[in-house]
Amino acid sequence: MKVLVANRGEIAVRVMRACREMGVPTVAVYSPSDRLAPHVRYADEAVGLGADRPAESYLDIGKLIDAARRTGADAVHPGYGFLAENAEFAGACRDAGLRFVGPAAGVIELMGGKTASRSAAQAAGVPVVPGTDGPLAGDLPDDEVRRLAASIGYPLFVKAVAGGGGKGMRLVREPDALVGAVRAARSEAGTAFGNPDVYLERCVTVARHIEVQLLGDEHGNVVPFVERECSIQRRHQKVIEETPSIAVDTATRQALGEAAASLARGVGYTNAGTVEFLLDEDGKFYFLEMNTRLQVEHPITELVTGIDLVRWQLRIARGERLTLDAERTLAPRGHAIECRVYAEDPEAGFVPCPGRITTLRRPDGPGIRDDSGVAAGYAVPLFYDSMLSKLVAWGETRSEAIDRMVRALTEYEIGGVRTTIPLFRWMLRHPDFVSGRFDTGYLDRTLAVRPAEPLLAPPPEAEEVALLDILSGGRVNWGAGRGFDRTEFRAFGVELEESYPRFRESVQVVLEAWRQERITWHGDYFKFDEIEVLPKPYQQPTPPFWVAAGGPDAIDWAARQGYSILMDPHATHQELGDKRRSYFKALDSYGHDTAERVIPMARLIAVAETDEEAEEIARNGAQWTIGSYANDKVSVNSNT
């Protein structure tokens, strides 16, 4: 067996790890943006797809099949996302003589349609949320749509028949909003999935999102697993998952497992899949949909059962028979929680934050697992989902799992891009989460009324920590085009995230301490009151700040504060040339009076690799340095 992994990021690495343990060679595929990604380096072979756009790379069935043929792979694992639930791709693999590590194409097509899967669930005796039995006809009169909605009851959802992730979905609370919501959902569904069909389904107003993992082999055996709680969602997207659910007792767990298994047997399901349910306040559950693939949150199930789901996916694809004990799979050992770490800014509406990861320090220790698809130096691209990793914590109890997750989040350091880590650190200490008082709408409601303040309030000693960090080589880093609205300080194990105005106040405290001679230079170290602080190799004694400024506004502001301006002291030797060009491009926007406007206010430090570059920098009126930061050896020379 040789497996081509038709995916990228952390799930590709996860699948390859299982393959390596089984002695199965792997093939990675990659776009130009992912050429140096961890999944490419981890695989035994790699094939370039020639384009960054998903439609021309990870979604191009022809290129993926060709890559498998060229490398001699005889199996394809789709991971999740991209083509994982694409019946055409599964069929193309079958037609090419490749084993698709997942269910048959016909089953994917059946369960991928929301209305068809509802019918399958009803046939298997699984309760479903009241709704229309099929999609709304495109030419159905508005009055008939209103009549159907009235028979279902409000509030209700207009949902896309195809796809998921909240696209093509509209919540309708009043009859007057129904027709407009149907039109909007159809338009969005057609754009997102190529299928504008929608149906109506009652909204269970206060409900939990509960799902059941299962495995099915080619011999008719189906094994359900302990449920996962996925109610912490933002705009219908899962954010935090855990298992088991504190809202599910033993009897309900057994009933959920039996319902999921009955549905899977009824449609002839094989390999890994997940049946999703809504659980209402009375403990009644209703079928929601089925995901015909491995789930993002599968690690928490693995941690409480001790069963490697990916390994079993591969064994099932080879035709092996399931030998798992259902009593084991439905009896969790301890508790596990997963946080999805995205390159998004939770303080700015969760906007994606692509960019280069400058530093990466992963958490470790008892009960911690980090499934990651990135590394220091990797550039998070614009083209794909912004998930960086899945951080998982296990404990003997839910309380211990939460404590371990909080500890791990304080250890997690990702520099260069904004992430959702601050959201998790706030969320996991929120009284409602700790007590389990939440439902699928909880996070959206909570964020909507949260005061406009940082998710993590700085401790009282913020200014002192900032001062110590700056003296020990810390810096403010503003990327060109982003402005200087936020900064991160890390010192002595303390991570602070503050808005720019609060940082400016901290700066004034530091400057005042410098003027009062509470900060003094002692030849090779700083002293703040009685605290000795060793500078980084590139630090110079005066003035006390380096600012790595990426744009003219940041340069101008830093200069007017009297700071030294440094390009990027953490740049590798190979990157210096590109960074120097970018730096001077930023300076060029000042015009020809750069030296007159900037240099009198502060020293301008730039990096030169050669004497010729140093002369060019000097002509711009800057102080310059020559040396290799990679070796932490820098010599400082001045043209003044």
Description:
The chain has 640 residues and is α+β, with helices and mostly antiparallel strands. It is built from 22 helices and 34 strands. A hairpin with a 2-residue loop joins strand 28 and strand 29. The longest helix is centred in the middle third of the chain and has 18 residues, at 250-267.
User: For the residues shown, what is the average pLDDT?
Assistant: 80
Structural class: alpha+beta
> What share of residues are in beta strands?
15-25%
Helix content: 25-40%
Low-confidence stretches: 458-463, 469-506, 536-555, 561-607, 621-640
- Major pleated sheet: 9 strands, antiparallel
Number of DSSP strand runs: 34
- Write down the overall geometry: globular
Radius of gyration from CA coordinates: 28 Å
Report, as a whole number of angstroms, the end-to-end distance.
67 Å
Number of contiguous helices: 22
Key traits:
34% helix; five-stranded parallel sheet; globular; 640 residues; disordered C terminus; alpha+beta; nine-stranded antiparallel sheet; 22 helices
Describe the structure concisely.
It is built from 22 helices and 34 strands. The chain is α+β, with helices and mostly antiparallel strands.
Task: Give me the secondary-structure topology.
Blueprint: E1 3-5, H1 9-21, E2 26-30, H2 38-42, E3 45-48, H3 61-71, E4 75-77, H4 87-95, E5 99-100, H5 105-112, H6 114-123, H7 142-152, E6 156-160, E7 170-172, H8 178-193, E8 198-202, E9 207-216, E10 222-224, E11 228-234, E12 237-243, H9 250-267, E13 271-280, E14 285-291, H10 298-305, H11 309-317, H12 326-329, E15 335-342, E16 344-345, E17 351-352, E18 355-356, E19 359-361, E20 368-372, E21 379-380, E22 387-395, H13 398-411, E23 413-415, H14 421-427, H15 431-435, H16 442-449, H17 462-471, E24 476-478, E25 486-491, E26 494-499, H18 500-515, E27 519-521, E28 526-528, E29 531-533, E30 546-549, H19 552-560, E31 564-566, H20 576-588, H21 594-598, E32 605-608, H22 611-619, E33 623-628, E34 633-637
Parallel strand pairs: 1-2, 1-4, 2-3, 4-5, 24-30, 30-31, 32-33
Antiparallel strand pairs: 6-7, 6-8, 9-10, 9-11, 9-13, 11-12, 12-15, 13-14, 15-22, 16-17, 18-21, 19-23, 20-22, 25-26, 27-28, 28-29, 33-34
Helix pairs in contact: 4-5, 17-18
